[in-house]
Predict the structure.
Amino acid sequence: MPQSPSYENLEIVAASFCLEGEPKEITPYGNGHINDTFLLVCEDGGTEHTYILQRMNHAIFKNPAALMENVANVTAYLQKIISEKGGNPDRETLHVVKTKSGENYHEDNCHNFWRVFPFIEHTFCLEKVENASDFYDCALAFGGFQRQLASYPADTLHETIPFFHHTPSRFRDFQQAVAADALGRASRVQEEIDFALAREADTHILTDLLAKGELPLRVTHNDTKLNNILFDASTRKALCIIDLDTIMPGLSLYDFGDCIRTGASTGAEDEPDLSKVELDLSLFETFTKGFLKGCAGSLTPLEIKLLPMGAKLMTFECGIRFLADFLSGDTYFKIHRENQNLDRARTQFKLVADMEKKWKDMEEIVRRLS
Ligand code: ADP
Ligand code: GN1
Ligand code: MG
């Protein structure tokens, strides 16, 4: 993990971007697990301008230049589509603020990579679903996002993390972490390891269908967790999809599943009390309805049939990633307390087990809505 920057350096970093006004305040912001995010307030003759300043995690995103090329191109494309549809491109998608030398990012002396977006004011993001209509909106937005990008030239996108949602490859990484047992933690979590190992056969289901050409490759977001969407504070409508680092060709089921994993769970992702964690079937139904509407008829019958599998596999995949990271010494996902990645893995496995129990209901809901 790159070292944390000092406040002094942050001002120097901020000064390399084309900002309105002078940097006045820079404070840590948000709850992302990957990048270091700061709220940057600038002042220009009494008027404040706010920005998001982010240090990209280049231990994870090995090629920040390629990543930012994706983000700049996709956001420019979305701005055009949103304007054509009469929307507000300043609020409904991100904008990359260029550096003074005209680049999409700034590399500092310590080989850190920085970017800036205007802060989208008067918005909030949810860590947990507060009511069904927010979640319905979220589903409409993620489904709509996929539709907006349906004609985006997929071959121009760089693969920012290879095999990101390739579940069999995630499973192999997990097995390697168990075998290496770098911190001697494996014996404490044998039950969780066994839970994961027992489900190896599931990991291939979607990738096999993709390889056979039975599922279409689309341009997908690939990180559709609930807090990667901004809601408008006045209308409470889903406004802007953020965290565009992993936009790559993928399956619609990834975007569906990842949001179910976070939004249709009754507990927080790191809830230590597993009795609070289950799949809320009614939220599953709400999201399915919204996602199908958002995709506006673009999903194939097989994609629709496999929506429950998308939910289960994305949850399982995240669980094995958290558990592998716990076993490897918490080097990937940020933690704020001991055992946080283990708690995260446990909630995901609890959800998977609950989905298995509720499988027929999930399938029936999808059948009814399709
Ligand atoms: P990470 O990859 O670490 O999850 P994100 O890009 O999702 O980083 O940003 C972290 C948080 O910062 C988001 O959950 C959101 O609260 C906030 N955020 C990011 N970009 C913006 C923006 N342009 N306007 C307002 N809030 C933002
Ligand atoms: C990370 O960046 P963030 O916090 O939105 C991760 C996702 C995981 C998620 C689990 C690039 O998402 O894949 O599903 O944590 N992003 C990356 O909460 O690995
Ligand atoms: Mg995020």
DSSP finds 13 helices and ten strands in the chain. The chain has two domains: 7-119, 132-369. The mean pLDDT is 96. The longest helix spans residues 307-328.
